[in-house]
């Protein structure tokens, strides 16, 4: 964000613009637009630090100051009015803005939509600049850790049901991290930047992380080593209990608050039967600025073969995750302050949520399907309406409409006289399980020959019974 | 599109840029980027008019020359590289581009996504600058009018099942329009612009449309009147047959081809039982350039109360549809040339599709729901897990997890000790039909008190039977 003096200077200039337009009796629309800009500048100046005021537009300003060092990945654009706009970076900030604009204090919802990052894409691992996210969030003032535990249960359920192989859900708490930094002797103003460095531990060795802390970010070796000691710890409720007794860490009130909540969380996770995959991991740091409490990240344990880097990737962040696991497929945490940043009065709505990387997950599922040579059915069609002889297009269309009207997913080939063989082949290729075959004889007898593609069995079914028979056969399979 | 001389000049300059970079041994990425620009310019120059060549990027150039006079509604943006980009105007052009890029000659799919128009929004009637479209398209070389008839059947089915009131689907054919313009004496180069004017007949009186043809577009009164005679005609298969006998129109080969297909179409529509709502209407013109055959548009007959125009609308296109019907809710047609425009060799893939204005439809459904004071259920939750006494949070969470694991949509309040009354009220407000109530006694007896919210009936159900009982009760309702 611009500093105070800059904003005050801009307000002065903008005030002149408005006065001039009013003096010239310019048209109302133009004046309104300039007044809006003035109010926006004044709002930016706002009250104290914790109480930013925004004119609520889906604009660059909405995204500024929420993503920490990741902000460089925001896609900027200018609209025709010259305003600075950005493409949506994630679904969390827009969700918080939506709650504030509509004064919603209480909601649970999911949202699947596209987001954009100016990152180095890695197609082979399902990493693109434009990609879908799938978010689930619970907003509202509730008793501690209950919605948080539900989010973890949901991640556990999704990753288990999709059969993506073994996985872990790492959890930590922003307050434990901050408390740890404080007792290790990291200066307050360096918490966020050191947090970003810790966040790299899943991709870099401790030695390199330490190097960055000492050489780039100015920590003493001693402080870095103390951090290194803590961030190597992993466990469950037992670790939270042990750290509550830690002579150093227990001196931090906020670390203790985080550790008490962590214990509470694990007790709920036991009830939800998901502790087998959840690990309290002090190295988990997530780079985003908006988290205030629990944070978590799900990683798949399976390792993919190292892909050949493309020339584009060679120019970019090579080595970042070449040949290692697909890594994070979901992440999230608690962000109790974000909605308040968009509310004119700073009214807070506590939130906790999770973001599922569905494109990464899809890319893994596709690779699995390819590897297993399993045939993926590409259609939901239950039955193809076919004919054995020529000149039966009209009869085929009539029967197709009958089936559609009865709620059957039916298909017909768009040819006047398709060969029976090509109709049957179409079913085999696309995985349509049934064929309803019409011929002169069948029409005379008021029946349809119903064929099961897999077994090639055929049986005459009366026209009146056809819908029920198709429903019966497709519900069995 | 820029003219040939401009492009040739640009190619010369760009050639110099590339040569200079190569001489300087600039980095590969930079050279590649400039070479790509050069190739793009050369592609624009391309071969003959009907065989445009594009470097396939999702950029402004993709959208240029596809939308006729509607092009002014395209949102332009610049990316950080300074390239001219646009926001997606519809889903048809991106679909055609996708087919060409992936060499797909055969597909049937739907797509729901956002599109953007720099139009005057009219919130009260569900018209926004950013809105969802829902498209269904059939691509491939097939026998005439079969996929076209299926598209109309789908529109008929959607509008019937949503119970939006009476509707009509107007159909016409670009070839009939062009033939009509030709036999009326409209010069070739004015077909498209006169087509745009005819397209306004659903919003303007004939007198005003004629005025525009004569005063703005330079037709003679006589020519305009001849057009006026045709565009007042409406009918079904009978009209197609009559026009095939029309001494003037039957002189146009392309009009006859269109009329023959129209007859064919109506014969299929009869088999699909949808002729009650489909009208062959010669005034239907749709402004977009890419249609080559049949075109159609669905309109609701119901009239909404005239909303009070907002100040924003007053500045804009007031009167355009103030107090009239909500108008078009779906439209589409055949576009056999569009895919070929994106293919390097101009290879054509015939397509027909329909676009459903889902936000308009939603806005109508919401107004209907409000008017009928019908309670809309806001959740899919089948059962709330509740407790009658204090200190049962853990038991509630345990039961909730049991139900989730069995595939039941269950919810639990995120409070340690919620009052039973507030739990029951939550169900009434959100429409959750069942409550599973736990108490000390129920836990001792191994049962759950299952309450039906609507009737307030309660019955003890054994824990082992609970999942089946919930499934049974929710499938009944």
TrEMBL record, chains A, B:
Cross-referenced SUPFAM superfamilies: Class II aaRS ABD-related, Class II aaRS and biotin synthetases, S15/NS1 RNA-binding domain
Record family assignment: Belongs to the class-II aminoacyl-tRNA synthetase family.
Record keywords: Aminoacyl-tRNA synthetase, ATP-binding, Cytoplasm, Ligase, Nucleotide-binding, Protein biosynthesis
Biological process annotations from GO: histidyl-tRNA aminoacylation; mitochondrial translation
Keyword Ion transport: no
Known catalytic reactions: tRNA(His) + L-histidine + ATP = L-histidyl-tRNA(His) + AMP + diphosphate + H(+)
Species the sequence originates in: Chanos chanos (Milkfish)
Highest taxon in the source lineage: Eukaryota
PANTHER family: HISTIDINE--TRNA LIGASE, HISTIDYL-TRNA SYNTHETASE
The Aminoacyl-transfer RNA synthetases class-II family profile domain, residue ranges: 110-305
Gene3D superfamilies referenced in this protein's UniProt entry, alphabetically: Anticodon-binding domain, Bira Bifunctional Protein, Domain 2, S15/NS1, RNA-binding
GO cellular component assignments: cytosol; mitochondrion
EC number of the protein: 6.1.1.21
UniProt gene name: hars
Stored InterPro entries: aa-tRNA-synth_II, aa-tRNA-synth_II/BPL/LPL, Anticodon-bd, Anticodon-bd_dom_sf, HisRS-like_core, HisRS/HisZ, HisRS_anticodon, uS15_NS1_RNA-bd_sf
Every WHEP-TRS domain range: 3-59
GO molecular function term, any single one: identical protein binding
Pfam families listed in its UniProt record: HGTP_anticodon, tRNA-synt_His, WHEP-TRS
Protein name, UniProt field: histidine--tRNA ligase
